[in-house]
Amino acid sequence: MAGSTWDRHDLLGLYGLSAPDLLSLLDQADEFRHGLDSKGNGEHPLSGCIVANLFFEDSTRTRMSFTVAARRLGADVIDLAGAGSSVSKGESLIDTALTIEAMGVDVLVVRSSAAGAADLIAGVVSCSVINAGDGRHEHPTQGLLDALTVRQRLKSLEGRQLAIVGDIAGSRVARSATHAFTTLGADVHLIGPPTLVPTSFTQIAAGPGRVFVGHDLDQALGDLDGIMMLRVQFERGTKIAPDYRQHYALTSERAACLPEGAIVIHPGPMNRGVELDSEVADGSRSVIRDQVTNGVAVRMAVLSTLLNAPALA
Ligand code: CP
Question: How far apart (Å, rounded) are the C-alpha atoms in residues 64 and 61?
Fold first, then answer.
């Protein structure tokens, strides 16, 4: 992609990435997605590389899709989960990362409940580090796959009106998606109860897209091109009022108020019947399964870029 100055060794967040950098990754991911759909991608540009998944917090989508992506590129994958590792004996995150690196791995994929964990590790190891979600901070590959899915469905993000609804304060997904969406020209409407969507969040706009903070979902619905519903992050201590669903769930009735062609996005895992109804999650507007497939394509693009894999023919 013209204008991309990609020279990063790690992917720790989407904050600060330029539009050409993002588009370069999305364009590559589109090609990988095409290969996945046509059962192609038969080449193995990362043959001989080792990808280590270090997951100190639970995951289904991210962990499995990094594994699928790495294997499709021909890399070997090793896995370490917090439970069952020597972390339980008091070994630090840094010592754990240095130990795995010393085995000759090429990239560490790190998931942690601690914001800044991937940055901390990247500061001490020589191999590449990918942030697979750190506390409330960032989840860059999720933001990329969300942007890819929006771009595929809506053709472009420029000028699009996208809402992110729910527990914004507890969500690393909201931060990464907002960076990606606004950098690529979409306006982002962060909607939820005042306790979960502080007005200070308008400052996370990267531009040229703008960020608006609002608390009235019903008022916003008719103007949206896409709506991302977030799970309430109970595991991070978020508390919600008993009438949360009444105001902030995407029910079938609310989904019917969206303009024709508007899409429903959810990063998963979802709590059906809490933040969105099953009929909406499985309905024609939903792109949730597509996001999962795009997750493999995006992670193939990120691994290829960081490990300087030769372009596929
Ligand atoms: N979206 C996401 O990060 O899901 P997992 O926690 O299952 O990886």
Answer: 5
Q: What is the pLDDT of residues 26-38, one digit of tens each?
A: 999 999 999 999 8
107 C-alpha vs ligand 1 centroid, how far in Å? 19
- With vertex at residue 231, the alpha carbon angle to CA 225 and CA 236, rounded to the nearest 5 degrees, is 135
Mutate which of 57, 58, 61, 175 for ligand 1 pocket (most atoms within 8 A of beta carbon) = 61
Backbone CA torsion sign across 96, 88, 299, 120 = negative
Return d(Cα 110, Cα 201) in angstroms, integer. 26
pLDDT for 231 equals 92
- Name the residue among 150, 138, 177 with its Cα closest to residue 291: 150
d(CA 208, CA 255) in angstroms, rounded, equals 28
Q: What is the pLDDT of residue 83?
A: 81
What is residue 299's three-state secondary structure? helix
Tokens standing for 156?
Answer: 């472009």
Residues with CB under 6 A from ligand 1: 59-62, 133, 139, 142, 267-269
Q: Which residues contact 25 (CB under 8 A, 6 or more apart)?
A: 144, 298, 301, 302, 305
| Measured distance CA(222)–CA(75) in Å, rounded | 46
Round the average pLDDT of the chain to a whole number and report it: 93
Residue 122 to residue 218: CA distance in whole angstroms: 43
The label of the residue with tokens 């589109």 reads 30
At 309, the pLDDT band (50, 70, 90 cuts) reads: low
Whether this prediction's pTM lies above 0.90 is answered by: yes
Quote the CA–CA distance of 313 and 31 in Å, as a whole number. Answer: 11
pLDDT digits (tens, 9 = 90+) for 231-283: 988 887 888 888 999 999 999 999 999 999 999 999 999 999 999 999 999 99
- Can you tell me the distance from the alpha carbon of 297 to that of 257, in angstroms, rounded to the nearest whole number? 32
CA distance 120 to 172: 17
